[in-house]
Design goal:
heterodimer, A: mainly alpha, two-stranded antiparallel ribbon, 76% helix, 1% strand, globular, B: alpha/beta, D-Maltodextrin-Binding Protein, domain 2, 2 domains, six-stranded mixed β-sheet, five-stranded mixed β-sheet, 42% helix, 20% strand
């Protein structure tokens, strides 16, 4: 017991010493102010034009289901062959920022998350749109995105050397515990029933095992060649979220009440700004969670939004309103997924290690111009590096302005009759899942999972925990296998997974999260009538 | 009558041969698609886009080549598709990675082997190198070998998965030196394996020369040896494993090139085999490849056929015990 206590103290001591390191870095990093000198470069006619093009194009691409930020950036790479290095990166950086934010549009209006980052946005965002508050939801989401995004880029500008060390601190054992922390969220993500949430999570974990496993190359549940690569996460997202809705819309259409047009309430932008200011807690939680998680290579972007959503619910006094169109959850999720953009580039820009698929694509965009990320980038090509980073900063503002401008128009999507809407969503779903890797197999997977989800939803299961299982399964598995291989060759499994301050800290958070969820469940049960639990 | 028939037959034969000849002489008549079995932005995808960017020039194919990514399961998804579902009409090409696809076909569970494809030409060769962290106590290959020999199975060495070039290099090192190490396959390719080395999660790593070169430029790693027959132009100061006393040849070198599915008309194969190597030699292509730190190695169809056959033999022997 005493030993455990001492270890805890050590962890805290380390965290405190980190603060001092942070302040020292800041004092010594006089070079970081350098970014100001390169602001002018963003505003040359060509550069600013590319920035506008990247931002607007990115919003449109991001709003299209199936076109994830990674794909949008990859599609743009060939165009940068003809541009100068800085220009190409402005285009790519702007597109990256605004596709992440643009994903919120389809998540809110159509309940189709364009990428894993937008899953949490659907939970409250779409509920708001259904109530006719689509414009308000979109405005809040773009404002929250801009706040989170700007904070993330500022972190990238000022704290890159420290953050790079942090990113490297996460080895296989830590990533494993982080994934387990994500698993503890699964149960509470479905606000109706913890048991059903956990069951959906298990289905997701099982689906994640399909295909050749990533490390050993073993074949699991491959009954058809098109399943060899496993369930594609984007195709699964589209199927699980969009198809049940399409079926419901068609079914309603037959009952003749589908033509009912929802009222779309206008919402002044000023009101959205003041609402965001009132929700400082959600913004703070979202931004911090997004920046910290976004930094960690290999996990980052996919779960930042979900973890932020869950955390802000745990800290909110109105936690029972989450899931029914409560803006707090939306704000937390959207500020988190844009806050992650800046820090997710830290490992790439400093260590030349791409921490996410999108960063890997950006690496290609740098290499094509003969620029190596790392010291070479900041020492020999500071104009390229800082113009790129500055353009992301200004890109956030432009993205917000355009987003707010289209919010009112876009919200009218809710007025489209349901029968028409169902057809459009179905078309987008097929197009989106096909375009991920130009494969009809993904379309069948999307359709199959969607029909399955329709029936599961009728029994009270929901899609979000299932998707989280699908995302976390491979992360937990791969890191466990890798960790245990390293452990077996060195100290042994127990010290490797349970020793070290970071491991202990993460395990403590996992335990706290489990107990908190259990306690909340028990408490809410005491106050809830039996019928509500059954429902 | 007989004469007439014979004349008609000759005419017909002539007609059909000219038709066939025409069909191939005019090839390509529409844009060509090239399948890359790794995701957009990866090293293979990146290089494939560069080497095909001049395909539309009149002195090359005269038609552009579009890249189609079919990633998944270490390349197996894409190569399965190329072997079993792609049209063998010359308008569907594929990028190959040696030794990956041959090693996978030996291991089994896939629908292809070296016989399922016809090589066209090779564009690049990325040798595997042995890297350690910048602050590692190992300074030469001999240091690493000494440690591995004294501590069997304790030298943790990262690489990008099983049955890829990195794994093959590790197996060859173990065989040549008579020691055993702990090979740690990572998920997420060479980048994740390199991160493990830089962060000190593993003691050493086997990685692509191009990525290791960049990591060394950034001051993050030391490169101790190259698993190739001769020193590389990018790293003239780094010895080969053979020079340092480990009998490791170039079987683990990651060769990248273009192939077509078996059954593609011979005329098309000949036309491609003739024009594609010249397309790779374009100065713009070479410039971009060099800027990206990607070593080029152009080989003709005949040379590639020979290389494939040699790999098949070496890999069968090496993987027999696994």
């Amino acid at each position: 017991m005493r030993g455990v206590f001492q270890r805890f103290m050590k962890t805290f001591a380390k965290l405190f010493s980190l603060l001092t390191v942070l302040s020292q870095e800041r004092a010594s990093a006089g070079g970081a102010v350098e970014f100001i000198f390169y602001f002018g470069d963003v505003f040359t006619p060509v550069n600013f034009g590319l920035l506008l093009l990247g931002t607007i194009g990115g919003l449109i691409l991001g709003a299209t289901p199936g076109l994830s930020p990674t794909m949008a950036v990859a599609l743009l790479i060939p165009f940068t062959f003809q541009l100068e290095a800085a220009q190409g990166l402005i285009l790519l950086g702007a597109a990256y920022t605004s596709t992440v934010a643009g994903g919120a549009v389809s998540a809110i209006l159509l309940k189709i998350p364009g990428a894993p980052a937008n899953i949490a946005t659907t939970l409250d965002g779409h509920a708001m749109a259904q109530k006719g508050e689509g414009a308000r939801a979109l405005q809040l989401s773009f404002l929250a995105s801009a706040v989170g995004g700007i904070f993330g880029v500022l972190l990238l500008i000022f704290l890159t050397p420290v953050l790079a060390r942090w990113a490297l601190a996460f080895g296989p054992s830590h990533l494993f515990w982080l994934a387990i922390l994500g698993v503890t969220v699964i149960g509470s993500l479905d606000s109706r029933s913890v048991v059903k949430g956990l069951l959906s999570g298990c289905i997701g974990l099982w689906l994640a095992t399909i295909g050749f496993d990533d490390i050993m190359g073993a074949q699991r549940f491959i009954f058809h060649p098109s399943l060899g690569g496993g369930i594609n996460i984007i195709a699964a997202l589209i199927g699980l979220f969009a198809i049940p809705q399409v079926i419901t819309m068609f079914a309603r259409g037959r009952r003749q009440d589908g033509a009912e047009v929802m009222r779309v309430q206008k919402h002044p932008i000023g009101a959205a700004v003041s609402e965001l200011l009132r929700n400082r807690r959600a913004v703070g939680i979202g931004t911090m969670t997004g920046s910290v998680i976004g930094l960690i290579p290999g996990v980052g972007g996919q779960i930042a939004g979900l973890v932020a959503y869950d955390q802000s619910r745990k800290f909110s006094p109105d936690r029972e309103k989450f899931g029914s169109g409560h803006p707090e959850g939306l704000i937390a999720a959207e500020s988190a997924n844009n806050a992650m953009v800046g820090p997710s580039l830290v490992p790439l820009l400093t260590l030349s290690i791409p921490g996410s698929p999108t960063a890997a694509v950006l690496l290609g965009g740098l290499l094509i111009h003969g620029i190596f990320p790392g010291t070479d980038l900041f020492d020999n090509h500071p104009d390229v590096a800082w113009t790129f980073i500055n353009s992301m900063l200004i890109g956030q503002v432009l993205m917000c302005i355009f987003g707010l401008y289209v919010a009112g128009l876009a919200a009218r999507v809710a007025q489209v009759p349901q029968s028409v809407m169902a057809a459009v969503v179905l078309g987008l779903a097929v197009f989106g899942s096909y375009s991920v890797q130009s494969s009809m197999g993904d379309v069948y997977v999307m359709a199959g999972l969607g029909v399955m989800m329709y029936f599961l939803e009728r029994f009270g299961f929901s899609a979000a925990p299932l998707v989280l299982g699908l995302i976390l399964g491979p992360i937990a598995e791969a890191n466990f296998i890798q960790g245990s291989m390293i452990a077996n060759a060195t100290d042994g499994v127990m010290p490797y997974f349970f020793g070290g301050s970071l491991n202990i800290f993460l395990i403590a958070v996992v335990i706290a999260s489990v107990f908190y969820s259990a306690w909340m469940e028990l408490r809410s049960r005491r106050y809830t009538s039996k019928e509500e639990i059954m429902a | 009558m007989k004469k007439l028939l014979a004349g008609a037959a000759i005419a017909l034969a002539g007609l059909s041969t000219t038709a066939v000849a025409d069909g191939h002489a005019n090839y390509p008549e529409r844009p060509i698609m090239m399948m890359v079995s790794y995701g957009a932005g990866g090293a293979t995808d990146f290089q494939a886009r560069i080497v095909t960017m001049t395909a539309g020039n009149e002195d090359a194919l005269g038609m552009p080549i579009a890249i189609l990514n079919k990633p998944g399961a270490g390349g197996r998804v894409g190569w399965n598709w190329l072997a079993s579902q792609a049209d063998a009409d010359g308008y569907t090409l594929g990028a190959y990675n040696i030794p990956h696809f041959i090693a996978q076909s030996i291991k089994g569970g896939v629908e292809y082997s070296a016989d399922s494809f016809e090589p066209i030409a090779n564009w690049g060769a990325d040798p595997a190198v042995l890297v350690v962290g910048a602050d590692s106590e190992f300074n030469t290959l001999q240091d690493v070998v000494d440690f591995a020999s004294a501590n069997p199975g304790k030298l943790t060495t990262s690489g990008a998965g099983l049955f890829v070039g990195h794994h093959i290099a590790a197996l060859q090192m173990e065989k040549a030196g008579g020691f055993s190490m702990a090979y740690i396959p990572t998920k997420g390719g060479g980048a994740a394996a390199m991160k493990a080395v830089i962060a000190g999660e593993v003691m050493a790593g086997i990685n692509n020369l191009s990525d290791a070169f960049r990591a060394r430029e950034a001051g993050n790693v030391k490169i101790l040896a190259v698993a190739d027959l001769e020193r590389n132009a990018f790293l003239p100061d780094v010895p080969t494993m053979k020079e340092s006393g480990l009998d490791v040849d170039n079987s683990s070198v990651n060769f990248r090139g273009i192939m077509v599915p078996k059954g593609t008309p011979q005329g098309v194969i000949d036309k491609l085999a003739e024009t594609v190597p010249a397309m790779f030699e374009n100065t713009r292509v070479a410039g971009k490849m060099k800027a990206g730190g990607s070593p080029m190695h152009i080989m003709t169809r005949d040379e590639v056929l020979e290389m494939w056959a040699a790999r098949e033999v070496t890999l069968r022997e090496l993987l027999a015990g696994l």
